[in-house]
């Protein structure tokens, strides 16, 4: 097939931010509608955003299942992007579980059935050699992309191109939490085959019906892709997400591109952020902690490596810090004499003090180690059963229990189980949300150690500092900044993480920490930011954040001029109004 045939574009480019004048027109007064030639195309009422938001919430309430709510919100984002983000930012606690974990998990499993419109880009293995040209089909200037090969979607396994829900969901959070403009985000899914046989055989599946390509083939493909992305958008920040084996690409690209892997690094940072507060609340000094990790994959090892860094900052040697971890994977305790070949990333934490005993039972290992900390990153829902939780409560005044597997069905225990089996004494954070719980006289609120506390700030910090790479210090700074972001009330209530409703404020603090670390490491190109003090830097960050409340609900640059010069009461700036592809707003 010739190059032209490969790249032939049958219709208009995919539009992540498809908007129609009709949706925006709802709040335009009649004179503007007449000017735009849209008069008569929408109902006569001129509606404020608030009225439109009320209707959206009612519509949402009418949808009986989470997946139908997810579909409605997808439709809203595609047809009225500012209204969607206004709704999301005003209802972040309630809506995040619908656009992200846990609902996004179900959406990815069923993506081939529920798909109605493209959002983001797909690049296939058969496109290699042409990746740079294909990127030209994307109509917007991109500042950040989230890319996945779909090979490990949450704890749900290999979902191939169905994994697109994850980049779309994470980038929506980049916009809602850190104010990265929606049109500057690119959800990207790599169609590199899938080992999910049922999907390959499903007539509705939309990716290549071949097994996953080899690691070597993937490496070559990613080499081409990284070069193509940075050639097209030289300051782009690239977030890798939900790869089955994320370590090779992280090692290969982290010093040469502005990239990070959220499952390894973002997870590590967010857990350390809450962990710092849990250690304080536990009353046990850092040097006396011992941690069992159920699950020794990318997330588990990513978390432990960053806790090692924290322990070192608390005065331990690296060797002392490393020895505080006992990992369990599907073959039992990770030891150097287990008899199987350990994956490279596990070797650092392999135990050699097990006296030849290969613990298969978590309970027995708990008796042996007497841990203060139990982390779950195993994808095994319910693995922290009653016996295990009660044993942790017997060993500790304030056991630290973090069941982090996603979505909720894979969580190693629920908040309720953890509270009831530890007499309400546990210090708890999960990956997916759980409701608050009345226990005795108290209302207990679970921590949600979700990456959304850090990745938006890591991304925005890298964008604003124009970082040439995302250093480990920048990642660690996001954790430390997060741990300082709780207000007095949250600290008094014993929370490990700040209220998610304050996420935009938290993201400013995280972004500032990330920018400062970039400056200290000398990887920042935006050197003018170095002279700003913290207050000035915060003001700069806030000013650069997209705020859907400030967006004009009109279409087209000419109309913007009319409105700013006219007397119709529209006096805001014209932030973000340009004539995009096909006259689309944004
Ligand atoms: N902050 C968060 O909420 C967050 C962030 C990242 C990942 N996660 C979740 O963590 C989980 C793991 O992610 P990952 O990237 O490490 O996946 P992974 O596939 O790399 O690792 C899973 C690990 O669990 C182990 N495991 C499987 N079955 C087991 C069993 N029966 N007993 C003990 N161990 C077992 C595997 O051997 C492997 O070491 C996923 O559910 C993911 O959604 C949560
Ligand atoms: O963002 C999260 O917290 C989810 C995480 O990336 C995951 O893979 O489970
Ligand atoms: Mg992930």
From TrEMBL:
Cofactors, names only: Mn(2+); Mg(2+)
Record note on cofactor: Divalent metal cations. Prefers magnesium or manganese.
Residue ranges of every copy of the Malic enzyme N-terminal domain listed in the record: 77-254
Top-level lineage group: Eukaryota
Q: Where is the active site?
A: 100 (proton donor), 170 (proton acceptor)
User: Which Pfam families does the UniProt entry name for this protein?
Assistant: malic (PF00390), Malic_M (PF03949)
Q: Which processes are annotated in GO (biological process)?
A: malate metabolic process
Return the InterPro entries for the record: Aminoacid_DH-like_N_sf (IPR046346), Malic_enzyme_CS (IPR015884), Malic_N_dom (IPR012301), Malic_N_dom_sf (IPR037062), Malic_NAD-bd (IPR012302), Malic_OxRdtase (IPR001891), NAD(P)-bd_dom_sf (IPR036291)
Which residues bind a divalent metal cation per the record?
241-242, 263
Cellular component, GO annotation: mitochondrion
- Location of the region described as Disordered in the Swiss-Prot/TrEMBL record: 1-29
Please name the CDD domains in this protein's record: NAD_bind_1_malic_enz
UniProt KW keywords: Metal-binding, Oxidoreductase
Compositionally biased tracts (Polar residues): 16-29
Molecular-function GO terms, alphabetical: malate dehydrogenase (decarboxylating) (NAD+) activity; metal ion binding; NAD binding
Classification via PANTHER family: MALIC ENZYME-RELATED, NADP-DEPENDENT MALIC ENZYME
Name under which the protein is recorded: Malic enzyme
Tell me what organism the protein belongs to.
Massariosphaeria phaeospora
Give the organism's phylogenetic lineage: Eukaryota, Fungi, Dikarya, Ascomycota, Pezizomycotina
């Amino acid at each position: 097939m010739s190059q032209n045939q490969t790249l032939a574009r049958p219709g208009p480019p995919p539009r992540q931010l498809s908007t129609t004048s009709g949706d925006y027109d709802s709040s335009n007064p009649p004179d503007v509608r007449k000017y735009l030639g849209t008069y008569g195309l929408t109902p006569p009422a001129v509606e404020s955003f608030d009225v439109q938001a009320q209707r959206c919430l009612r519509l949402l309430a009418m949808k009986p299942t989470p997946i139908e709510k997810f579909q409605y919100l997808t439709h809203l984002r595609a047809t009225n992007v500012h209204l969607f983000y206004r709704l999301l930012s005003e209802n972040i606690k309630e809506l995040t579980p619908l656009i992200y974990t846990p609902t996004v998990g179900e959406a990815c499993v069923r993506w081939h059935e529920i798909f109605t419109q493209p959002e983001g880009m797909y690049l296939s293995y058969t496109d290699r050699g042409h990746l740079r040209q294909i990127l030209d089909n994307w109509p917007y200037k991109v500042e950040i992309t989230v890319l996945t090969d779909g090979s490990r979607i949450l704890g749900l396994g290999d979902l191939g191109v169905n994994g697109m829900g994850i980049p779309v969901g994470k980038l929506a959070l980049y916009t809602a939490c850190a104010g990265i403009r929606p049109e500057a985000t690119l959800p990207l899914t790599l169609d590199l085959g899938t080992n999910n046989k049922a999907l390959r055989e499903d007539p509705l599946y939309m990716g290549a019906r071949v097994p996953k390509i080899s690691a070597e083939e993937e490496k070559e493909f990613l080499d081409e892709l990284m070069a193509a992305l940075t050639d097209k958008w030289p300051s782009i920040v690239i977030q890798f997400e939900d790869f089955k084996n994320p370590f090779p690409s992280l090692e290969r690209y982290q010093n040469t591109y502005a990239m990070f892997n959220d499952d390894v690094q973002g997870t590590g940072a967010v857990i350390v952020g809450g962990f710092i507060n849990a250690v304080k609340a536990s009353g046990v000094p850092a040097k006396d902690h011992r941690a069992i990790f159920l699950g020794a994959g990318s997330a588990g090892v990513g978390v432990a490596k960053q806790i090692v860094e924290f322990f070192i900052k608390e005065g331990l040697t690296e060797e002392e810090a490393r020895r505080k971890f006992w990992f369990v994977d599907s073959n039992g305790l990770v030891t150097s004499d287990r008899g199987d070949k350990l994956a490279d990333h596990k070797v650092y934490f392999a135990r050699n003090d097990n006296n030849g005993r290969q613990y298969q039972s978590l309970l027995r290992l708990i008796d042996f180690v007497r841990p203060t900390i139990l982390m779950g990153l195993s994808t095994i829902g319910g693995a922290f059963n009653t016996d295990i939780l009660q044993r942790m409560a017997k060993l500790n005044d304030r056991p630290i229990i973090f069941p982090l597997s996603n979505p909720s069905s894979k969580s190693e225990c629920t908040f309720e189980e953890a509270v009831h089996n530890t007499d309400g004494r546990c210090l708890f954070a999960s990956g997916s949300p759980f409701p608050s719980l009345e226990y005795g006289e108290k209302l207990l609120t679970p921590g949600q150690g979700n990456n959304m506390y850090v990745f938006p700030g890591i991304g925005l910090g890298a964008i604003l500092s124009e970082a040439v790479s995302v250093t480990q210090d920048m990642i660690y700074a996001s954790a430390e900044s997060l741990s300082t972001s709780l207000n007095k009330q949250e600290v008094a209530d014993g929370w490990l993480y700040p209220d998610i409703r304050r996420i935009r404020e938290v993201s400013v603090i995280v972004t500032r920490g990330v920018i400062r670390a970039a400056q200290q490491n000398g990887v920042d190109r935006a050197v003018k930011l170095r002279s700003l003090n913290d207050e000035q830097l915060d003001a700069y960050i806030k000013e650069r954040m997209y705020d859907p409340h400030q967006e004009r609900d009109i279409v087209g640059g000419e109309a913007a001029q009319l409105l700013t010069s006219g007397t119709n009461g529209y006096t805001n700036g014209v932030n973000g109004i340009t004539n995009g592809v096909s006259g689309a707003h944004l």
